[in-house]
Amino acid sequence: MIISIASGKGGTGKTFLATNLAKIMESQGVQVLDCDVEEPDDHLFLKPRIKETINVGIPIPDVDEDICIHCGKCSQVCVYHAITDVGAKVLVFPQMCHGCGACKIVCPVDAITEIDHIVGIIEKGRSGDINFSAGKMNIKEVAAPHLIRKVKEHIKPDVISLIDAPPGTTCPTVTAVSNTDYCILVTEPTPFGLNDLKLAVEMVSQMGVPTGVVINRVGIGDNKVETYCREEGLEILLKIPHRREIAEIYARGEIVIEELPDIRNLLQGLADRLPGLIEEVTRV
Amino acid sequence: MKEIVVISGKGGAGKTSFAAGFSRLTGKNAVLVDADVDAADLSLLMDSKILKKNEFKGLPTPVVDMDKCTKCGKCVELCRFDAISPDIKIDTLLCEGCQVCYNFCPEEAISLKECPMGEWYVSETPYGPLVHAKLDPGGENSGLLVSIVRKSGKALARDMKKDFIITDGPPGIGCSVISSLTGADFVCVVVEATVSGVHDMERVMELVDFLDIPSAVLINKYDLNLAACSSLEEKLGQQGIPVIGKFPYDEVFYRAILQKKTIPDMKDVTPYIHDSFEKAWNHLVSLVSKVGQNLS
What we know:
The complex is a heterodimer of chains A (284) and B (296). Chain A is α/β, with parallel strands linked by helices and 284 residues long.
């Protein structure tokens, strides 16, 4: 069972939910996959012991100038302007390359081979009984979707997988949420939260991923998010109250449910319900 | 004319609240740019009226002509983005627009369709003009859309003889962040005093350093973790990065959003926050004015 945790707006509580839910589910077999590769933070809370670090690269072209006839076809076929034939030499711009392979396929003299350009790493380890994997994109790189796809190759079929997705609604988020059984959208009861929730709902419904909503910091804003969810027939899975002490525990990098029993009970309720709920929506 | 980009690394640090508040304090002497095209919220903080609407076209997406397709599977094999299913259905959300399937289909059964990926707008607000956008969910090429809104903001600022462009940047360190930073005059990094906030700020700072843009830091929610805050201040001091202000974790930030107001409008509620806000802006202006004259 693969559950993605996403949100349109950043800072609504995805990481909080992913890490605290993982702690609750620890005894039943759970893994966390941090796919927020631009800002991976799950390790700060789960403090896993990292046992393996894997380099992730994208295949970028390497041109053999002895074979190249400078026909310019590679430049023409590349929509990302990542390879340019300037006549005497073929220039490659690794940061612009998406690794699609078009230049290699089109080259009539097979002058192009592919080499790995490292865009980030995957760290794997354990935090207690929680299986942990996190993607970390290198600075200056843009290939977040590729790294996310690589992190998702570490999904274990025999446990519950919690995917912490990046914020937003564009390609990195779509890649993280795609092919998951259920998507939990985390939001807050403010006009920002509502606006960005609507965009996220549009995204998941286009993707056909069943979804439910967690409203965080309830009490700080208005009830328009709840009204919207009711009107759209979106299930409100959980309402987490706004409390300063939650923010303070989180700010220290600690696990909130370990210090606040009532929040543990709230999240336990969600953890108990999720498997049945997901089975139900998947059957439909 | 100087462009100040407000970023944070981590989402929810307060970028939009500060960008809106700063623009309010310029006294209509700024063009506002919302470069967070995934989740553009700046217009929600003010009464804005759209003056001009433009279509945004991303990269063209492939369409399969099922009459010509022989289901040979070549495109499935070549697509590195898992965007084509075995029964030759293209998932446009996963498609990165590389055109490999179009270029190498042996039956020439795939064509390209230019489709709108979103819109961008020029709006009027009580604090000056605002350039913003809405990228369709799953939309490609957010970096390109970011550069379009920034370019348009720059042209507008030049035409209207504004001294500032205030750009609300996206979270993260990826393509849209790089796109919102390149060529900017100054970066204001909003960091929340939390373990994750500081971690994410350090990552985005590396990018700012690499791009060699002068920067200052604004610490938000400083009282959530006082230890993290003081070690952050110490570190920034060693690096010579100025801290232009410190703000407490206060509900006034939420209340302002609900009332469609900026923090400087909330003077009656939290006068001390208002004062720190003004001080932060003045400090920022003095730092920005020291940056070499922008020739463009």
